[in-house]
Amino acid sequence: MAKITLSIIKADIGSIGGHIKPSQKLLETVSNYIKEKGRGLIIDSYIGHTGDDIAILTTHKKGPSNPKIHKLCWDAFLAGTKIAKSQGLYGAGQDLLVSAFSGNVKGMGPQVAEMEIEERPAEPFLMFMADKTEPGAFNLPLYLAFTDPMHNAGLILSPKVKEGFKFVIMDVSYTKVDKIIELKAPEEIYDIAALLRDTGRFVVESIFSRASGEQVVSASTTRLHNIAGKYVGKDDPVMLVRTQKDFPATGEILSPYTITPLVAGFMRGSHNSPLMPVKKNTSISFFDGPAIVSCLAFCEKEGKLTESADTFDHPYWDYVREQAAQETQELRRQGFFGAAMLPMSELEYTGVMETLKELEKRFKIREK
Ligand code: 13P
Ligand code: 13P
Ligand code: MG
Ligand code: MG
After folding, report:
1. Are 203 and 192 in contact (CB under 8 A)?
2. Could you tell me the pTM of the whole model?
């Protein structure tokens, strides 16, 4: 059986009218670059956007973290940044935080989700892309899809799925090297929940089937402010999920997105927002949000991709989107107050810290 690598590498390299969407010319530049320069290196590719982020999906036989694949995408983003600058786009090169490529785009700004797979006779998988949020946004949907029979009927109906899954969770506050823990579902679901509730710190990096040992999920974990030391935009994540057979069905993976959980992001990356499931190539609007997630389904054979199926483009999700809009309104009614805005610990890389420093000088200790 052929071994194939699926790689998503994603970056915000500039946007029309603020943080709304990339220009058509920018998308074409990235797409043409990958097609021309990737010849002989990659098997197939798909390029799309969600909000102001451009994602490059490639299939190849080079394995994860391959310098040639990463350089191809990095250089495509550099070529795009030139166009973004020439068009006067906002935030040109926003996520390219390091000036020289050093073998792997991880830790350089772009988000990365990659998986090497032993190809099955049929290989369905999903490509998730989110904007105006952070990698922890996938924590709850993943927890529910892989541990809860309220969303995953396979946990009751399929013996292979019932064997459970291994979660690999990263502590993204530890920036020197990767710090991870492996936890097993179902035995350790309360421990998994105890970590995943803290979306700013603990993030699902990958999930494996316990029946076959195969990888099901690969999600991106980069925190941009940990690289830049200041706020440069949210860490809008990407994720790959394989589906069916020993893995949850596509609909089981999608099911938790009906909850539209509150996630961090939205305006200036500093607010809470319901996570709204959207159609492919959706742009951003109200209050630089709300936080959005798209999901494209593919099948592949020896690396050749089918066209994408847009999973959130269905009347059911119109209803969910309407509900998410209502929730968004409820939350926005209280503006900066309380739970609407993120806690100070999440704002520590923004300009509000200057204000607090100035105010601190004016505080006085009242003598009794
Ligand atoms: P500016 O202060 O550059 O307008 O940026 C605000 C913003 O959109 C944060 O990314
Ligand atoms: P992005 O992270 O999507 O660039 O958004 C930044 C922002 O500050 C929006 O208000
Ligand atoms: Mg942006
Ligand atoms: Mg973005």
Report:
1. no
2. 0.96
